[in-house]
Amino acid sequence: MTTPPAPAAPLLSAHRLAFSRNDEPVFGPLDFSLGPGETVLVEGDNGSGKTTLLRVLAGMLPSAEGEIRFDGKPASRDSRNGHVLWLGHRTGMNESLSAHENLGFLAGLYGTRPGMTAIAAMERVGIAAWIDEPLRTLSAGQKKRVGLARLLLIPGDIWLLDEPYANLDRHGIDLVNALIAEHCARGGATLVTSHGAVRFADPRARHIRLGT
Amino acid sequence: MSRSYLPHWMHWLGSPPNFYRFAGAWRPWLMAAALIAGAIGLYGGLVLAPPDYQQGDAYRIIFIHVPSAWMSLFIYATMAVAGLIALVWRVKLAEVIAMECAPTGAAFTFITLVTGSLWGKPMWGTWWTWDARLTSELVLLFLYLGVIGLYNAFEDRRRGARAASLLALVGIVNLPIVHYSVQWWNTLHQGTTVDFLDPARSSIAPSMLWPLLVMALATHLYFFASLLGRTRTGLLSLESGKQWVRALVDGQPERTTGAPT
Amino acid sequence: MNEGRIGRSMPAAKAGMAGACIALLRRDFVLAWRRRGELFLPLLYAVIVAALFPFALGPDPELLARIAGGVLLVIVVLAMLPALESMFRADLEDGTLEQWLLAPQPLALLALIRVIAHWLTTVLPLIVVMPLLGVLLNLPVKVLPVLIVALLLATPLLALLGSVLSALAAGARRSGILMALMLLPLAVPVVIFAAGAVAAAQSGMPYIAPLMWLAAALVLAIVLAPLACAAALRIAVES
């Protein structure tokens, strides 16, 4: 008699996660989990700790209390490597190089999703006309799109996106929502922060509200 | 993080308000003991001990020079150990202790260099020479200054303490160099005269040895007393927003907390 | 036993370690090439300082010959300082370091590759220029090979030590003197051994022992410095 398979562990889960800076509590305690195909939207006003939460999840900040698990196993120094993609306020790319060069180097460093190339990613996000200009000559919105191209190109199950809609126009916002939807359809998971000015497209997304 | 392998008292002491009270209670006693030991040691060294058959009375500066030199190394080791704890386990108390060691260590290193220079002039005819021990002791002073400088370059004191602790650990390779420099290289500085591992090999007269050891005890006691005092101040400024500090300032009875923060 | 499902929903072209190292080296070379005008500055600095010594001390060839080896060593160390200070600053500011934390490769390996690229682009030109500077300071010809070997051992060692310090200082407020203050105590033993080798060669004595010490320290540093550098980078990114 076979036992039914145990329910698979979520890709990312947090248990009583909290963070304080100089003993001032920034957020928490929070409990949530993210499985394949799921999206969580973290909302809150400026200064409510959204970026801090994402940085804690990304491993850049040590959590004060609580536990983070990847695939059911407690997070260690290397759990995220190659599996988590981070899109923050900074581009993460060198300003003296062009988008094409930057993505080429990133592909060499992190690998690429099968079937995806730097050119295809850049065309998808709509910066095909500026792929050879140094990044510093691009506008903030164009730089953000280069960051989105990186998300398309580099493999990673879990996307942590901090204010991905910042600096984008209406088309850009639709693009972000489309990319997130495709990512979830592929079985990935996404955690997005927003200060609520943008209507998030996915009606099935769960919401977490930070701050009072 | 589970701390079940630590003895309970260590767990208790790691909490800033508990350490603050503990340090406040012990500091005056340690300081008094340091002053008494220092008085005894100096009397024994400056008055009781006979003149050296080679150097006359000029040698008596060793009763300050040698204990200071020992302290310059000991304090660095203490700083490195506290820094290691701060880096690996992020214990707030360890961060404060490590950073408060640095100025005292720098001071003892400076005293070592100055007293050595004052001794060197009548002995070797020169205020300074670039031999191995003097050079590595000077390097030690710069290491201390680097740690202090790096710590103060950070706005976030906890990050600064961890960065400076890492620097202290990188520089720890200098310690054996200072200590063994007189054995590895032919230097102007005299060789090892006090051998702790094999006292029979010590080449110093007993009447000079005991004041030296008493002064060593005095400087250790002084360092611990000073460290307790400085750590108290450091904890106050690091924790200035917290309830236990505000209670202290207001003079109200504080809420006792059993768990360390 | 359930295997982790992370990574299985999207099988990817794995980035091999060798491929990643080459990609990072290429990136640093391209960046250095874009700034190739700036790379001449340390060279120019070294030439100017080397040329100043005969003016300051008088052109007596024997005096210059006696001090040439040591002076050239000091010039190289000083010329390395500005580039060392900015080794990680740009990447911290534009967010590249954050991405390194999430890379499939160990952070220590990426740090080591960065040091190698830094040494090749900023220090190797200095060493190549040594014969010219030696002529300016009347360095005895027989000493030149020993000086070159000493520099080939000492400068990577200093670059590795400097990488740890640069990572530590990258997260701090800008302070010009801090890097020099931190590097000096660690550079002193290196300079002592390198200069000892050169001085021994100059007076016809055996010079192998100091070079061996440098080599041993270099091997130790290749193993340990990247680990310390990675720890320092993690502290720098945390803010």
Features:
heterotrimer, B: 261 residues, mainly alpha, 9 helices, C: 239 residues, 10 helices, elongated, disordered N terminus
Summarize it:
With 212 residues, chain A is an alpha/beta fold. Helices cover 28% and strands 25% of the residues of chain A.
Order of helices and strands of chain A: EEEHEEEHHHEHEE
SS strand fraction of chain B: under 5%
Helix/strand-derived category of chain B reads: mainly alpha
The backbone outline of chain B, from C-alpha atoms, is globular
Number of helices of chain B: 9
Spatial ordering of strands, largest sheet of chain A: 6-7-8-3-9
* Element-by-element helix/strand order of chain B: HHHHHHHHH
Distance between the termini of chain A: 52 Å
Strand content of chain A: 25-35%
Counted up, domains of chain A total: 1
Our count of domains of chain B comes out at 1
Q: What is the CATH superfamily of chain A?
A: P-loop containing nucleotide triphosphate hydrolases
Low-confidence stretches of chain B: none
Rg of chain B (C-alpha, Å): 21 Å
- State the name of the first-level CATH class of chain A: Alpha Beta
How would you describe this protein?
- The complex is a heterotrimer of chains A (212), B (261) and C (239).
- Chain A has 212 residues and is of the alpha/beta class.
- Helices cover 28% and strands 25% of the residues of chain A.
- Chain A has helices spanning 50-58, 99-110, 118-125, 140-153, 170-185; strands at 12-21, 24-34, 39-43, 65-70, 73-74, 84-87, 158-162, 189-194, 206-209.
- In chain A, α2 (99-110) runs parallel beside α4.
- Chain A is globular and about 50 Å long.
- The mean pLDDT of chain A is 86.
- Chain B has helices at residues 8-13, 16-48, 62-89, 92-124, 132-152, 157-170, 174-184, 206-238, 243-250.
- The longest helix of chain B has 33 residues, at 16-48.
- The model of chain B has no long low-confidence stretch (mean pLDDT 84).
- With 239 residues, chain C is an all-alpha fold.
- Chain C has helices spanning 17-34, 36-57, 61-85, 89-94, 96-101, 107-128, 130-136, 144-170, 176-202, 208-237.
- The longest helix of chain C has 30 residues, at 208-237.
- The model of chain C is unreliable at 1-12 (pLDDT under 50).
- The relative contact order of chain C is 0.13.
- Chain C is built from ten helices and no strands.
- Chain C has one domain.
- The chains are: A alpha/beta (212), B mainly alpha (261), C mainly alpha (239).
- Chains A and C meet through β6 and α2 of A and α1, α4 and α5 of C.
